[in-house]
Description:
Layout lengths: L2 H6 L21 H9 L1 H4 L2 E5 L8 E7 L2 E7 L5 E5 L14 E3 L3 E2 L6 E2 L5 E3 L18 E7 L2 E5 L19 E10 L3 H8 L6 H4 L1 H4 L8 E4 L3 E8 L3 E8 L3 E5 L3 E11 L2 E10 L7 H29 L15 H17 L4
Antiparallel strand pairs: 1-10, 2-3, 2-5, 3-4, 4-9, 6-7, 7-8, 9-10, 11-17, 12-13, 13-14, 14-15, 15-16, 16-17
Amino acid sequence: MSLENIIARYDPTAPLAEAxxxxxxxxxxxxxxxxxxxxxxxxxxxxxxxxxxxxxxxxYVTCDVAGEPFVVVRGNDAALRGFFNVCRHHAAAVLTQxxxxxxxxxxxxxxxxxxxxxxxxxxxxxxxxRNFDRNSMGLVPVAVTIWKRWVLIRLDPNGPAVTEIxxxxxxxxxxxxxxxxxxxxxxxxxxxxxLDGGYHVPHLxxxxxxxxxxxxxxxxxxxxxxxxxxxxxxxxxxxYYWIYPNFMINVYPTAMDTNLVIxxxxxxxxxxxxxxxxDISDEARARxxxxxxxxxxxxxxxxxxxxxxQRGLASxxxxxxxxxxxxxxxxxxxxxxxxxxxxRGVPKS
Length: 349
């Protein structure tokens, strides 16, 4: 079946009370995953780094977005820039560490060297090469911006503006630790699970269910984002922000964590958790680690169910499901935004 036909099997015009989930083929077809790289992930702003990682000249962070390698670096002029992390000579990665600090950017393959501003400064043994314009051989730039306390990049120069969430205040929290999780499921399975309006919480997360009020769980849908929230033990709220397509920010009274969801294959997903706390002093360390351990227990429960869902999606018994009008407005938004991006990327027959 063609990609055009697979996409057409979903009806984005159906209101929530009548809507179905996206078809199972959207989670299973390798060509579909390639289309997502060219549309969903190239068209949207993607988290590349925490701003604190690139505060001083020469500090850099490398990342992959839409299957492409990038580097974000602070220049000597204090400007923040993004580049494809691809040497203009023979295409090797110029920077091979996840993060660091450098006086210049030197490819480890043949020593081509670039300034922090991306200009080619040295190309050994190229002196006798004709029609070689050094000024045109700098690193290829990519759009970069700062949002809240994160650095974002976007491949498509005509993509949408950054999603603004004025009510979100991340200033009380300080970065503490990072964890990586690998899941045997399509990336959309993890997003669907996150956006089900707490539907699965009382059935899957006994510990979390004890501190949330399931009956009062609320879903507020924006144009390209969704806020799910619930009263939290102690009288405050737990806030769960999702920003299309793959970034989540979870805010509690004294802690925050972010989830960056990265496709690593049609049925493999990496989720990067960054944990932040209001207090990261030595005295608070044990308490913060205990909080991370509790979060990991929840994550392990989600890993198990997401694996089960991916297996079921491949069954001949399943084509698509229905959405809860009470709980799954966020998931409905996600599916409709996916449709818009994917439809745009398929050549018209």
